[in-house]
Write a structure and sequence with these properties.
Blueprint (H helix, E strand, L loop, with lengths): L2 H22 L4 H13 L4 H8 L3 H13 L3 E6 L2 E9 L1 H22 L4 H19 L3
Antiparallel strand pairs: 1-2
Length: 138
């Protein structure tokens, strides 16, 4: 197995573990993605949130309704257009994103704990390169 294939498998397996960590908190991948988008990109109109998440607006409306019912997001009037609303995280939503993220980072840290400093430095460099390429425009 070459390096790229080995890394691919590790990413697939780690992604599954991270999904399970989120599921323990009651978060589906879609739910976490919406909450994380609101956390890191700020309040959004439903249409913009749907576009960013790659779903239809009615699908996002249902998702937001569920998040609202759980007390994780709230609607407020859009300051740029009083006829529409923006969706924002509540303090509970912000705390849940922070907790979910911390659990995943902790799992990764424990997974790396036994590596030598040289191996950790090489892994850091590889991760930075992969992240750079992942964020490039297609």
């Amino acid at each position: 197995m070459d390096d790229a294939e080995q890394l691919y498998l590790a990413i697939v397996h780690a992604s599954g573990r991270m999904r399970r960590l989120d599921e323990e908190l009651g978060l589906s991948p879609a739910r976490f993605s919406v909450l994380a988008t609101l956390r890191y990109d700020g309040p959004q109109r439903i249409g913009e949130l749907a576009r960013r998440e790659g779903v239809a607006q009615p699908t996002m409306t249902q998702s937001v309704q569920g998040l609202e019912a759980a007390g994780l997001v709230a609607r407020r009037p859009d300051p740029a257009d009083g006829r529409s609303h923006v969706i924002e995280l509540t303090p509970s939503g912000r705390a849940l994103v922070r907790r979910a993220r911390a659990r995943k980072i902790d799992w990764i840290a424990r997974s790396l704990a036994d590596l030598s400093p040289t191996t950790r430095a090489a892994l850091h460099e590889a991760a930075a390169s992969i992240d750079h390429h992942a964020l490039e425009s297609p």
